[in-house]
Amino acid sequence: AFSEKVTLNKLRFHAQAENLSMLIKVLFQEYLYMSVKSKDLINQLFQTVLLYSQTNRISRNAYSRHELQLKRKFDDIRNSFYSKKYFPQNLKEVADLLFLSESRFSHLYTKFYHISPAKDILNFQLQYAKELLELTDATVSEISKRCGFSSETIFIRAFKRSFNVSPGKWR
To answer: Residue 62 CA to chain centroid, in angstroms?
Structure first.
């Protein structure tokens, strides 16, 4: 019924798959129960949805089965940054946990979370530092060490760059 060549039997993974599926179901129901005049419009909408699913707008977020398995492991590691306050010394340390090269790890991390792992880890460190500044009496030097910064100076610069105020004044 569709004039475009669309692969219908290919499995696709997409972040908004439920929404797309719901739209297709609604369109199909409308197609079955509408008048002859409406069927042409519904047919065009179906065609648009199927073509849309073929474009980069959806496939850009599509994951292979292997990537989906890796994504779960990435989620676990990323959650450990938040919950366990684990901050790796370098990306190679984390990539080794997943048996990936550092460049492959960085590529997949950016694909999954739309932020580089280095920037994301820095964000985790700074958020944890804010918590410690608000909830403890620890010195700025102690906090910089607990958050995984190599020096107090680097910590202060990063904090100022992100929050436009020094850690001492934040408190």
So the answer is: 12
Amino acid identity, residue 9?
A: N
C-beta separation of 147 from 157 below 8 A: no
The SS3 of residue 132 is helix
Q: Where is pLDDT greater, at 24 or 148? A: 148
Two tokens, residue 114: 């739309």
C-alpha–C-alpha distance, residues 98 and 109, integer Å = 12
**Tokens 């292979």 sit on residue:** 64
State the distance between the two ends of the chain, measured CA to CA, in whole angstroms. Answer: 66
Give the pair of three-digit tokens for residue 70: 């890796």
- Where residue 142 falls (left for φ over 0; alpha for ψ -120 to 50; beta otherwise) is alpha
CA distance 55 to 61: 11
* Residues in contact with 61: Cβ distance below 8 Å, sequence separation at least 6, in sequence order: 14, 15, 16
Q: How far apart are CA 78 and CA 120, in angstroms?
A: 9
Q: What is the pLDDT of residues 76-118, one digit of tens each?
A: 888 887 776 677 878 898 899 889 999 999 999 999 988 999 9
Give how far Cα 60 sits from Cα of 38, 94, 111, 112, 169, Å.
32, 25, 9, 11, 43
